[in-house]
């Protein structure tokens, strides 16, 4: 273990303070009251994949790596829709997943929001409408915000979430 | 013989059932009015998903099978509908009355079932696992998937090879480069065009980079599922750096659009520095992680897949190699000339699959150095010829099989068998004798694709 602690001290903090951090600081200040009121200071997200290629999920996982460390912004992913404020919906809303997505949404406590992640749920990816695809998601759920990209990079997801917070 | 794929093609008057083995390809024709075929599942258990899918897709009846349940069509799917038939052109279907799916279960005093999914607790793809439990111990597990079924095979019919590419590279995000390489080989065959060596090397290097990204992610997540989070922090850093390297080289973090016939330029100095750094980090990681006994206590003997079972179930990729099968599509002269060494493990447990990934990352670094090209020239494709074309690629998960039939310049039939389609069927063999708390660890050690499997 001593090797690990040596390595850790040498590596230091990797988390990037990208350009958005100044924007973030200002945004945080103006949103503080509202977030506190609506989300008790933290935003809980339930990620639901309704038929993606797994790239959107990989980028959401990347949000937890040391370069992005999303939780420092008070935004974190939860295991159950019953703990969530927001559903982050990726994928094409396949025929087989649609009832389960609607189930998960029904389980979320009010107030609740759905954010679509990536081009698929908005039916903007190269996949075409067929019998197995029920996207766009807006035909089935009220969509509060959309984060475009194929897939959106972790950076773009963070910006998208902040844009959503600004909007509500 | 090893079963690679089994699928049907609709012809004018008949269905042709194609069975692809490693040594030969069998073709049998059955009438369309009353299509019946004999199951292969008694000698090759992994044939059963192919056969159940064939029934869902075309209505072909499988005689003698031990399992006739629908595979792709779930509880609310309209009964008697076989969408891969050419005359099916509906673009929407209405859900019908819920008909429960009968899971495989084990009876007995005190035996109970645990249902997991389709939506899981983490940021993972949807799929269902049904466990039969005796207390903590798993007696049996059934894998039930196809929640992500997008009917990609149907979607691509009627498109040109060029137009199909954007979809093909998005079938499974983790294996995009491998899918593109299979597509590339088919496009080249159809156009009767040779690929210059430099381009082949550049593409092979991107495939190794994709493999590194995938393996590094797993090398973090596997220890994390055994409660050792520090490894995840370390490896997710390396995986992010590898992804940024992919962005630098191909303009996309997942390499979408990376494999093509355009001119490319690579900053080889930067790439070499990156590889040196990664090699150093991997050396540290291996020394560090090998020295944590409590972690290996969880890895060793957990989720065993014996060699003869890996063989019987026709497994591929990391799962097969960790159980001692010397099976890799890269095992050829081109790859060997660029440093490829076929590595296998013996024990077939989580530890073996972990060590297999570690070895493959180290080998990929060596290969990427040898494959590095400063520049590749554009390739002009000739006219597309009709025909039946097959290609293979070794994705980060294992052997990928793709077949495209081109007729009148457009796709008549598109079939792809993701490596996960084989390995998912062997997953339940790893469960007996383990406790349910080890299921996530075992599952992660295989890290199979749901999207590629479900298509």
- Most extensive interface, chain pair and sizes: A-B, 51 and 54 residues
User: Mean pLDDT of chain B, rounded to whole units?
Assistant: 94
Q: β content of chain A, as a range?
A: 5-15%
Number of separate helices of chain B? 15
Number of domains of chain B: 2
Instruction: State the separation between the terminal residues of chain B, measured CA to CA.
Output: 26 Å
Number of strands of chain B: 13
- What order do the helices and strands of chain B follow? EEEEHEEEEHHHHHEHHHHHHEEEEHHH
Give the overall shape of chain A, derived from the CA principal axes.
Answer: globular
Number of strands of chain A: 5
Main sheet specs of chain B: 3 strands, antiparallel
CATH superfamily of the largest domain in chain B: Cytochrome-c3 Hydrogenase, chain B
Q: State the shape of chain B.
A: globular
**What low-confidence regions of chain B span 5 or more consecutive residues with pLDDT below 50?**
none
- Cα Rg of chain B: 22 Å
Largest sheet of chain A: 5 strands, parallel
Task: Give the tally of structural domains of chain A.
Answer: 1
What is the number of helices of chain A?
Answer: 5
**CATH fold-level assignment of the largest domain in chain B:** Cytochrome-c3 Hydrogenase, chain B
What does this structure look like?
The complex is a heterodimer of chains A (168) and B (455). With 168 residues, chain A is α/β, with parallel strands linked by helices. Chain A has one domain: Rossmann fold. In chain A, 37% of the residues lie in helices and 14% in strands. Chain A has a 5-stranded parallel beta sheet with strand order 2-1-3-4-5, with helices on both faces. In chain A, strand 1, helix 3 and strand 2 form a beta-alpha-beta unit. In chain A, helix 2 (20-39) packs across helix 5. The longest helix of chain A has 20 residues, at 20-39. Helix content of chain B is 39%, strand content 17%. Chains A and B meet through helix 1, strand 1, helix 3 and helix 4 of A and helix 2, helix 6 and helix 7 of B.
């Amino acid at each position: 273990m001593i090797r690990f602690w040596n390595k850790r001290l040498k590596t230091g903090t990797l988390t990037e303070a990208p350009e958005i951090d100044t924007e973030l600081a200002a945004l945080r200040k103006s949103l503080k009251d509202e977030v506190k009121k609506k989300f008790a200071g933290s935003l809980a997200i339930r990620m639901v994949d309704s038929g993606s290629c797994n790239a959107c999920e990989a980028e959401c996982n990347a949000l937890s790596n040391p370069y992005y460390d999303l939780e420092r912004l008070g935004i974190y992913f939860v295991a159950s829709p019953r703990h969530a404020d927001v559903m982050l919906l990726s994928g094409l809303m396949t025929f087989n997943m649609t009832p389960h997505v609607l189930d998960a949404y029904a389980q979320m406590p009010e107030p609740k929001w759905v954010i679509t992640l990536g081009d698929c749920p908005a039916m903007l990816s190269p996949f075409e409408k067929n019998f197995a695809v029920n996207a766009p998601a807006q035909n089935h759920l009220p969509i509060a915000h959309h984060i475009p990209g194929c897939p959106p990079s972790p950076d773009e997801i963070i910006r998208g979430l902040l844009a959503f917070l600004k909007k509500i | 013989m090893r079963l690679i794929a089994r699928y049907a093609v609709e012809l004018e008057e008949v269905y042709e059932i194609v069975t692809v083995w490693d040594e030969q390809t069998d073709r049998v024709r059955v009438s369309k009015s009353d299509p019946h075929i004999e199951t292969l599942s008694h000698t090759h258990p992994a044939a059963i998903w192919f056969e159940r899918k064939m029934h869902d897709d075309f209505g072909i009846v499988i005689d003698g099978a031990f399992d006739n349940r629908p595979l792709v069509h779930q509880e609310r799917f309209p009964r008697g509908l076989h969408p891969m038939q050419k005359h099916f052109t509906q673009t929407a279907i209405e859900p019908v009355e819920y008909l429960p799916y009968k899971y495989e279960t084990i009876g007995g005093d005190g035996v109970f079932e645990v249902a997991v999914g389709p939506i899981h607790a983490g940021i993972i793809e949807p799929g269902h696992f049904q466990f039969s439990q005796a207390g903590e111990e798993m007696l049996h597990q059934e894998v039930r998937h196809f929640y992500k079924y997008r009917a990609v095979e149907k979607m691509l019919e009627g498109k040109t090879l060029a137009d199909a590419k954007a979809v093909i590279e998005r079938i499974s995000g983790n294996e995009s480069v491998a899918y593109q390489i299979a597509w590339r080989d088919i496009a080249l065959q159809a156009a009767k065009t040779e690929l210059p060596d430099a381009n082949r090397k550049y593409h092979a290097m991107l495939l190794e980079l994709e493999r590194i990204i995938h393996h590094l992610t797993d090398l973090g997540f596997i220890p994390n599922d055994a409660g050792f989070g520090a490894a995840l922090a370390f490896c997710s850093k390396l995986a992010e750096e590898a992804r940024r390297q992919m962005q630098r080289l191909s303009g996309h973090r997942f390499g979408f659009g990376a494999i093509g016939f355009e001119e490319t330029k690579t900053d080889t100095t930067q790439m070499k520095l990156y590889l040196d750094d990664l090699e150093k980090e991997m050396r540290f990681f291996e020394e560090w992680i090998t020295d944590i006994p409590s972690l290996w206590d969880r890895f060793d003997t957990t989720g065993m897949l014996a060699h003869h079972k890996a063989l019987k179930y026709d497994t591929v990729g990391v799962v097969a190699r960790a159980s001692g099968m010397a099976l890799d599509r890269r095992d050829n002269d081109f790859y060997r000339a660029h440093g490829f060494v076929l590595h296998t493990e013996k024990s077939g447990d989580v530890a073996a699959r972990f060590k297999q990934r570690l070895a493959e990352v180290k080998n990929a670094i060596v290969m990427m150095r040898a494959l590095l090209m400063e520049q590749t020239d554009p390739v002009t494709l000739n006219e597309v010829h009709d025909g039946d074309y097959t290609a293979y690629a070794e994705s980060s998960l294992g052997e990928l099989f793709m077949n495209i039939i081109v007729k009148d310049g457009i796709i008549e039939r598109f079939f792809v068998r993701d490596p996960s389609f084989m390995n998912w069927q062997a997953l339940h063999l790893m469960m007996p004798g383990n406790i349910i708390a080890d299921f996530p660890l075992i599952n992660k050690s295989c890290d199979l694709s749901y999207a590629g499997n479900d298509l």
